[in-house]
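Consider the tokenized backbone below.
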């Protein structure tokens, strides 16, 4: 996919650095058509020089630092810190369903979390996703994820 994107960039006169190319591959999830769409959008908005941040803005993907912040707060075991991160995310207006989706990827790829902890957290992510589809309050749902994640990290029993 990368070679095809670079060919398109060359033909269209676009400058795409190595980090932007990697970001594009990641956010497009291997879908060449989606990658081209993001590339077109970024070219229209930002001109011929396209950065990694430009592609993230166009795609609607939430920056990893934003997704990592509540995760790190949950790992710390400090509920007040986790609550502050949740409040900040909701106040910024990020779509919670996108946060849940990206948080799932973070959980699955983290090698410091046991399989049992991953299972507990991913189960909660699935429940919350269903609640969001049914119209539940985003703040309460992401706070539920944070609380359950913290319980999993502290090896506390999960509520049923």
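A designed sequence for it:
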């Amino acid at each position: 996919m990368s070679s095809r994107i670079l060919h398109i960039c060359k033909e269209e006169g676009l400058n795409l650095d190595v980090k932007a190319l990697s970001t594009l591959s990641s956010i497009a999830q291997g879908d060449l058509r989606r990658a081209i769409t993001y590339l077109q959008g970024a070219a229209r908005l930002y001109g011929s020089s396209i950065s990694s941040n430009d592609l993230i803005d166009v795609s609607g993907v939430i920056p990893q630092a934003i997704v990592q912040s509540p995760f790190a707060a949950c790992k710390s075991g400090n509920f007040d810190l986790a609550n502050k991160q949740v409040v900040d995310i909701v106040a910024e207006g990020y779509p919670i369903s996108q946060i849940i989706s990206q948080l799932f990827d973070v959980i699955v790829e983290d090698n410091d979390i046991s399989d049992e902890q991953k299972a507990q957290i991913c189960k909660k992510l699935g429940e919350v996703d269903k609640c969001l589809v049914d119209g539940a309050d985003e703040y309460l749902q992401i706070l539920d994820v944070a609380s359950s994640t913290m319980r999993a990290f502290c090896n506390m029993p999960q509520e049923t």
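The longest strand covers residues 15-16.
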